[in-house]
């Protein structure tokens, strides 16, 4: 973890604020476009936010938070109670949405989904590569950084307001038909946009970051044992409990945020056994996410 202080809070759209976080040393951990951090909030919640500043600026992190009255309390705390000067612990940056080299790019953003794409567009533009951003929202007033994008990138940016007269949601199928075959597509936004992108673009050319897991059906949950190699403890994981919770009850408290398999904070190394991966990130070989994933084998040996 890194200790930061809230340097300032800026309103960047209706119901959206941007936090600038700094350290006393001015030497934050490096990050690449697409990365996110966990914020440990004073109300005992940990939430994940995409970094939307400049990776070259090692003095500050910038994240944007939309107020959601139906959330679990993280955005409410940020909007109603967080003030400049407050100390916040933040994780080291993690990146499950990296910018892959390509000759040209199409970026698709919906609402607050613009945040991980901002540093990507900045990096691609600085490299002199062709790129277009299609940014969709109900109205420009509620779309963070819309003015900044217009001013910086001009006609590379197309902003669509779905509530405006005469504007409708973009036809991604028609857009896909016009793209050159070496274009990579990066998409972040609400579930409906992601579903439309999944249907329109070839899977090998589409990179997406999701706020919520894709609904999927798995087999029945079965019991298994988690053997903690370093402590020598064997933890029984019953069918009605997650590996994350079973480990916590046995004294192995892992970091956790989303508890839905989309943030990656609860990653654990698997030394032996066959995990059943249920995350939306795509766990690397030899790892799993304890909040949602389970076991195909009777036991897993974990590096704990």
Offer a quick outline of the entry.
With 304 residues, the protein is of the alpha/beta class. Helix content is 16%, strand content 32%.
Would you write up a description of this structure?
Helix 2 links the parallel strand 7 and strand 8. The radius of gyration is 20 Å and the shape is globular. 16% of the residues lie in helices and 32% in strands. By secondary structure, the chain is an alpha/beta fold. The model has no long low-confidence stretch (mean pLDDT 91). The strands form four sheets. Strands 4-3-6-1-2-5 form a six-stranded antiparallel sheet, with helices on one face. A five-stranded parallel sheet has the order 9-8-7-10-11, sandwiched between helices. Strands 13-12-18-14-16 form a five-stranded mixed sheet, with helices on one face. It is built from six helices and 18 strands.
For this entry, give a set of tags.
304 residues; 5-stranded parallel beta sheet; 32% strand; globular
Supply Rg. 20 Å
Unreliable stretches (pLDDT < 50, length at least 5) are none
Strand content: 25-35%
Q: Give the topology string: H per helix, E per strand.
A: EEEEEHEEHEHEHEHEEEHEEEEE
Physical arrangement of strands within the biggest beta sheet: 4-3-6-1-2-5
Gross geometry: globular
Helix content: 10-25%
Any chance you could write out the topology, listing elements then pairs?
Elements lengths: L1 E12 L2 E7 L13 E5 L5 E5 L9 E7 L7 H7 L6 E4 L13 E7 L6 H10 L4 E7 L8 H8 L3 E5 L10 H7 L4 E6 L2 H10 L5 E4 L14 E5 L4 E5 L5 H7 L17 E6 L2 E2 L10 E3 L4 E2 L3 E4 L2
Parallel strand pairs: 7-8, 7-10, 8-9, 10-11, 12-18
Antiparallel strand pairs: 1-2, 1-6, 2-5, 3-4, 3-6, 12-13, 14-16, 14-18, 15-17
Helix pairs in contact: 4-5
């Amino acid at each position: 973890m890194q200790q930061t202080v809230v340097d300032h809070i800026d309103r960047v759209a209706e119901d959206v604020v941007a936090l600038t976080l700094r350290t006393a040393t001015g030497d934050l951990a490096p990050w690449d476009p697409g990365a996110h951090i966990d914020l440990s909030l004073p109300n005992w919640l940990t939430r994940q936010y995409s970094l939307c500043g400049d990776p070259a600026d090692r003095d500050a992190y910038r994240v944007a938070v939309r107020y959601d009255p139906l959330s679990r309390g993280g955005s409410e705390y940020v909007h109603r109670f967080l003030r400049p000067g407050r100390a916040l612990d933040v994780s080291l940056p993690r990146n499950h949405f990296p910018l892959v080299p390509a000759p040209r790019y199409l970026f698709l953003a919906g609402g607050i989904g613009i945040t991980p794409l901002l540093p990507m567009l900045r990096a691609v533009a600085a490299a002199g590569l062709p790129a277009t951003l299609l940014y969709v929202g109900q109205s420009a007033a509620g779309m963070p950084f819309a003015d900044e994008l217009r001013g910086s990138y001009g006609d590379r940016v197309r902003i669509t307001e779905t509530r405006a007269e005469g504007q409708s949601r973009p036809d991604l199928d028609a857009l896909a038909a016009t793209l050159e075959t070496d274009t990579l597509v990066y998409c972040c936004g609400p579930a409906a946009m992601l579903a439309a992108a999944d249907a329109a673009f070839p899977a090998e050319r589409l990179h997406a970051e999701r706020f919520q897991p894709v609904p999927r059906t798995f087999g029945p949950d079965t019991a298994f044992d988690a053997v903690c190699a370093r402590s020598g403890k064997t933890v029984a994981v019953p069918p009605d409990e997650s590996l994350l919770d079973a480990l916590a009850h046995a004294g192995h408290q892992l970091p956790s945020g989303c508890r839905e398999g989309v943030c990656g904070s609860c990653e654990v190394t698997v030394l032996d056994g066959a995990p059943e991966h249920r995350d939306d990130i795509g766990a690397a070989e030899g790892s799993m996410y304890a909040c949602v994933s389970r076991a195909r084998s009777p036991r897993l040996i974990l590096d704990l």
